[in-house]
Protein 1
Amino acid sequence: MFHPDLIRHPDGCPALVLNADYTPLSYYPLSVWPWQTAVKAVFLDRVDIVANYEREVRSASFALKLPSVIALKQFVKPSQFPAFTRFNLFLRDKFTCQYCGKLRDLTFDHVIPRAQGGRTTWENVVTACAPCNLKKGGRTPRQAAMPLHLEPIRPTNWHLHEHGRSFPPNYLHETWHDWLYWDIELEA
């Protein structure tokens, strides 16, 4: 039987990166390396290969199946708190407008507007759809009579991982399923 990995372009063969304890280095974003970085790490003896694609890369002197799952040889201590990014903010707020509950046209909104001294922090920024953001304008939720569904907090990585169970990545290779917590059926 012909395996689809054999015709896959190497650029379509990212490696899932696990920490030395065999947990993903990160979930958001999912810790994946391009095949070139993974192969380099193999040759530098910085990782162990856990699983492979069927796809091989060749040189004049060797052939190597591209790694699909690798584990670092040295443990990297994860930070407790995620970076403040647009994606992490949307994930904290479950990709939902915190004013009306819509799931479309998402932007972010300063609860206390910058014009009123508000800062760009976890505790002052929420996900908002474009119409709600425009309606609220430079006012606070109270001034605009637009109550928030949830008060914004600084999430931990655990919070984002818990929310992320509902939002698996678009691509999950079959060899990754043992290392991730998304249901296999979500990939189809």
Protein 2
Amino acid sequence: MISICIIEDIPDIREGLQAIIEGDARFNLLRCFTDAETAIAQLPALQPDVVLADINLPGKSGIDCVLEMKPVIAQTQFIMFTIYEDNDQVFEALKAGASGYILKNTTPEKIIDSLVELYQGGSPMSPKIARKVLSAFNAPNTERPEQSVNDLLSKREQEVLELLSKGFLYKEIADKLSISISTVKRHLNSIYTKLQVQNKVEAVNKLYKRE
């Protein structure tokens, strides 16, 4: 069972999320918070698998919460929940340690799928956001990867990660390299293990030394 905490200050949205999560037997909702300060005080004791956090909260932001909590509860995965499809906020959330980002107009079914995907090591976010984030990591002024990272990966794994960093989807990577999607996923699992990361965003982040 996947244990979850919610940080959301708007009652209707918080109660809606609570109903979605409590309605699925795979989830165990531990607690709902209305502000980051209370969450920061109590999350270490709760040790949830997943925290679903609004970005814009009264007082400290959801991003502040992730920044403070990720080093303390490293195994907990954070996913940001917001109405804003904004590049700056996406980058700040990911840099703070979030592994996913979904919009508040996401359907209940997709919210459930995203929480499961996050728990299983994925990085759920809308395709539009994923394209923006991963493409930006490969901007012209981006530093090239250190040799030590390349030394860890095989030539094919480097090719897969380079294409991922440019915003290509799994199917597109498979087509470009003339391999199956399952082979792409197998290479990615190997990359995550070798780089000691949990998802594609962290892998690209490490490749280009984005802390």
